[in-house]
Every structure is written in C-alpha cells, then in structure tokens.
Amino acid sequence: MLIKNIVIENSAEITDIRIKDGKFERISKDISPLSGEEVIDCKGCMALPPFVESHVHLDTCLTAGDPCWNLSGTLFEGIECWAKRKEKLSKKDIKERAGKAIRMQASNGVQFVRTHVDVTDPTLIAIEAMLELKQDLKDIVDIQIVAFPQEGIMSYPNGEKLMENAVKMGADCIGAIPHFEFTREYSVESLNFIMKLAEKHNKLVDVHCDEIDDEASRGLETLACRAYEYGMGEMVTASHTTAMHSYNNAYVSKLFRLLKMSKINFVSNPLVNTHLQGRMDTYPKRRGVTRVKELLEAGINVSFGHDDIFDPWYPLGTGNMRDVLHMGLHVCQMMGYEEILNSYKLITHNGAKTLHLSNYGIKEGNPADFIVLNADNFYNALNEKAAVLYSYRKGKLIASETPSIKKVLF
Ligand code: FE2
Predict the structure, then answer these.
(1) How far is the CA of 77 from the centre of ligand 1 (A)?
(2) What CATH class is the domain 2-49+361-400?
(3) Cα(251)–Cα(238) distance, integer angstroms
(4) Residues of the chain with CATH 2.30.40.10
(5) 399 three-state secondary structure
(6) How many whole angstroms from 351 Cα to the centroid of ligand 1?
(7) Which residues share a beta bridge with 400?
(8) Best CA proximity match to 265, nearest among 246, 230, 241, 289
(9) Are 19 and 1 in contact (CB under 8 A)?
C-alpha cells in the first residue's frame, strides 16, 4: 500500500510512505506506485503515531450515576460511589463497558492504553475481565494492565496478598495509592512493598501518588527515592502528583534534584484533576494539576491521561485524548505557539516512553501504526478539532472518520 502526499509530525515537507507486510517499508518523496498497488492520497494532511492513553480506569468507565451521582465532586465521594457500584460487578459487565470505551478510544485515534484496574476486591474479577479483554482486542489496541489498589494496600484486608495475586494473574504493572493509606507509615510501607514486588517480578510501576490538595502529602519523594535506589526509574511512573501544585517552592526545588536523578515518568490528568481538586478550597481555588511545565523544562518525561471516562470521578468524556490535551494546555499555561504545535508529544511519544513501548513511531522498519488527521499541522488539528481520517494498525485500517460539513447561511 502506498500513502501519498502526507506530512509526518509537523514536518515542513510532504512525503510518501510505502507499507508492506504490516510495516513502514519506505518513507521518501515521490514514490511511484507499483502495478496494482493500493494508493491513498492524503492531500497534505498530517500523520502521527497513534495516540497513547497513558492513564485510564477502564473497569469503572461508563458507570456515572449508577447507582448514585458524585454530588460533591470529590475524589473521596467518588470512591464511596464506586464501592456501591462494585457490589454488582460481573465479568460480563466489565468487559462490555470497557470494550465500548476501547472502541470509543479507537475512533479517536488511540491504539495504546494503560488502564488501572481495581484489585481491592477479594474476587479480583476486574483483573480477570481486563486480562481477557486485552487478549480479545489485541489486534486493535495494546492494553497494559496496572494492579491498582483503590482502597489501599496496607489499609485494606489482605491488600498485599491481592496485589501479589494480581501480578501472578498477569498484570503488567504495579500500582499503589499512598495518599489514601490510613497513615504516613502505611503510605511509606506500601511503596516499599510494591517496589520490592516490581523488582522481584520485573514489572513496571505506576502509582496514584499524592492525588490530594494536601501539601504534606509526600509519597512522591519516597517513590522517586526507591526508584533511584533500585535503578528502576524509567520503569516507574508517578501519576497525578496533584499535591505538588501546593508544595512550597523551596521544597520543590530540592525535590526536583531527586526527580531528575531518579528518571521516573509523570502522568498528569488535567481533565479529571481540575474537576476533582480544590473542592475543599473557598477562594482562591487551587487548580490542583501538577507542575507539568516545570517538569518538562527540567527534562522529565510527562504525558497526559484521560483518567476517567463517564464514571463516579468524572461525569463526562468520550475517550478523546485531544480533549485532555486542550484542557491541559490551558490549565498548565502552555499556550505559546511552539508549545501548542508540539503538544501532541504529550499524548504520543511521551506516553509511549511511560508505557515502555518499543518500535513506536513512523519510521522505516517499525509496525505501520499511524493516524491521519484532517489538518496540515498539529496546531491547526487541535484548534479545528480535525477529524481522525484514518487509524491504521500494522497497515490495516481499524477506524476512519468522514469530516462533517458545516454550513453558514449568511
Ligand atoms: Fe487515576
């Protein structure tokens, strides 16, 4: 197959791509079609590697209002609502909802997903369901599963055992929730426990870390310190870190030395955290999103995640990473021309680094995974909400969109 007249990642030049046996065989200007070869003319539109959803909860998605709405809009009322919804979980229910959300993501150009899956449930039914779904849908999406202890590890009955069992069942990644543990001692103990578990089983780590507006919540320093000591930084991710929004600047400047040394990744979830955080504030109200701009300037890897899709923690969402990016650029004040132009990296390459993906990107020899947006660069694509014209996976079309036609009658 030959893709003609395409712009790759904001490049100033138009080029062609030949795909053979599911891989990018050749990328260069003016490739002539072979006889009988399928040719797609992209007319100067831009290609990107597929979007990476680096933080979502697919086991809870599409449950908002069932059985109750989160009226206060706080993380903690969300956890209470979810505890009630959890009582009627079944494998079929999880697979149907998560499968629907994955198709929504696919229609928005997502092909790689890291999902946190709640393991504070003695039946571990959600992990079982997601492992099956991962297998069922492997041709359209790569799913990475995090064993996520929503109600704590040290603070939940048999929490350590449930984490170990989830890893044995096949979870790719180990989570924690230090700010939700009963005490600071439990918080530190939980991080020590998961780092040992990850080292033993050679697993990735992704912690819900300091997702609270409490400037005293300092799980991050413990996580980064352990990651540094174990030499596992690139395998470790700190998600949310919203308390960093409230840390004093003197502490942050000391902390950044450790963060850089540790080489850990960060995931920020600007849609959900602007909604959940600052709820105990009167005015001024904190934005409650971590210091994305400063982390990036320090050379630390940061990606964006949707986090929740229509569930007890976030009542909206269609799995579209560009909605996440749009919010993130505003709330993090990253609205310079170059910042907007290159912001796609927060939902592509940076996410791929967090997920430890190999062979990701539009390069000769890599799997032919890519999307085509109906715009000539990413600034315009984001601003104009450009359609995802095509999403190809290993050279096979898995989703497409026809741009809508708007009429102004004056
Ligand atoms: Fe989360």
Answers:
(1) 15
(2) mainly beta
(3) 18
(4) 2-49+361-400
(5) strand
(6) 15
(7) 390
(8) 241
(9) yes
Residues with CB under 5 A from ligand 1 (ion): 307
| Residue 246 tokens, joined | 């409230």
pLDDT at res. 335: 98
316 CA from centroid of ligand 1 (Å): 15
**Predicted confidence band of residue 86 (pLDDT cuts 50, 70, 90):** confident
**Cα 37–Cα 40–Cα 46 angle in degrees, nearest 5:** 140
Residue 294, token pair as written in the block = 């400063």
Which pLDDT does position 193 carry in this prediction? Answer: 98
Element (H, E) at 16: strand 14-20
Q: Which residues contact 154 (CB under 8 A, 6 or more apart)?
A: 160, 181, 182, 186, 189, 190, 193
Query: Which residues partner with 47 through β-bridges?
Result: 8, 372
Other Cβ atoms less than 10 A from the Cβ of 14: the count is: 18
| CA separation for the pair 119, 109 (Å, rounded) | 29
Catalytic residues: 211
Q: What is the band of 354 on the pLDDT scale with cuts at 50, 70, 90? A: very high
Exposure of 338 by Cβ count < 10 A (0-12 exposed, 13-18 middle, 19+ buried)? Answer: exposed
Tokens of 397: 């079309």
Peptide bond into 49 cis (omega under 30): no
For residue 207, report the distance from its CA to the centre of ligand 1, in Å.
9
Please give the distance, rounded to the nearest whole angstrom, from the Cα atom of residue 116 to the centre of ligand 1. 7
Among the residues of 36-90, which ranges form H helices?
75-86
pLDDT band of 378, cuts 50, 70, 90? very high
Which run of H or of E encompasses 27? Answer: strand 23-28
Residue 174 is inside which H or E element, if any? strand 173-174
**Residue count (the chain):** 410
Backbone torsions φ then ψ of 314, nearest 5 degrees:
-155, 115
CATH architecture assignment, domain 51-354: Alpha-Beta Barrel (3.20)
Strands across the sheet with 110-118, in order? Answer: 51-56, 110-118, 142-148, 173-174, 204-209, 236-240, 265-268, 302-304
